[in-house]
Amino acid sequence: MMILHLISLFVINFPAVLAASPPITIYAWPLSAPSPKPFAEIVLPSATDGTAEVRTKNIPNVSDGEIVRLGILDDKKAWSGIATSADSFRPGIAQRLSLHTNTEGQVVHIGFSSFKAVPQNKGIQGDDIFVEIVPIQMGVQPVLNKPVILNAEGKVDKPGQEDNRTFLQKYWWAILLFLVLQLAAGGGKE
Known about the structure:
The chain has helices spanning 2-19, 167-185; strands at residues 24-30, 37-43, 53-57, 67-73, 79-85, 93-101, 107-116, 129-135. By secondary structure, the protein is of the alpha+beta class. The chain has a domain at 22-135. The chain is rod-shaped.
């Protein structure tokens, strides 16, 4: 009976184990340090759960006014991240990490912002890290294969554009031609 219970637990939890992604390590790298140190370890949500979980958090020891690089290392150990001031890690300052993901759900870049924490009665601690997952979005696509229509002057016609000239401005040449013909033809002799 116990073996059957263990097997059923394994079968039920097996898809959740497969769907769980490995944790993402965010590194903090002060300019004075020779190498980056882990800042936070974050577990991305599975397909059914929409919240990321911060497993560990290590505030870097930095002096006032120092610049700290925050970022990730990809599979090829290439750095991708941002730089922020040491003031972002003071007590009472909350941080927001934006994890930018590609179409496969892998984190390719991070964003970071810090802000003064809200009062304690709201249930938010001053040193909390908020994680936001930002999936890649398609940009604006150009509209192709529309013919360009030019007017008589060789310029692009704008829809709704009307000719605002008066009758005399439009047909002055025809009136002038008529008058010249009348004068040149002269009148008959009577």
